[in-house]
Amino acid sequence: MRIDGLQYANWSEKIFRQMREGGVDAVHVTISYHEMFRETVLNFEAWNRWFERHPDLILKGTTAADIDLARDTGRTAIFFGFQNPSPIEDDIGLVESVHTLGARFMQLTYNNQSLLATGCYEDEDTGITRMGRQVIAEMNRVGLVIDMSHSADRSTIEAAEISERPIAITHANPFDWSPALRNKKDDVIRAVTERGGMFGFSLYPHHLKDKSDCT
Known about the structure:
By secondary structure, the chain is of the alpha/beta class. It has a single domain (3-207), classed as TIM Barrel. 34% of the residues lie in helices and 16% in strands. The strands form 2 sheets. Strands 1, 2, 3, 4, 5 and 6 form a 6-stranded parallel beta sheet that branches. The protein has a two-stranded parallel sheet with strand order 7-8. It is globular, with a radius of gyration of 17 Å.
């Protein structure tokens, strides 16, 4: 089984075919980078057209069973995620709305401080905010995976402790291997994985030990 833990691309039929040639069974697609709710809805609309045009190549993934379905039918399951919580704006009620639209992952921060938690580039990590705790509870309720890939250490550990479901770091590397701000220290990785969470690797050059000089 081949799963791409996070991908942001200029999507096209060519890329869908390349994924099939590479045997990619599922991919976590960034459907919102910094977009607000309405802009994110437009992105979902655009993806609905992709699914209509290329049902032989891709399918919309909403549960783990869709990965098996994609593999069995020679397609790639597309799972949607947000790079930060901007699509829910300041409205906890939108958590369920974006889940209904098809989102399955949401990062609580993107490098900087958000309404929910602290990003990895901030000088001071104040942890999960009061709203963040409420959003985590709502994400747990509806089935939206908490992704802490761009979050600071304390915030990530607290998210793992607060969440009643396993959380994820979908794209980062061990800090001891490559000391980039975006990479994760051992205690952070343990806090996530010891509670059943997952840790996915990042191939972004700035997160790699030898940067672009890698094979």
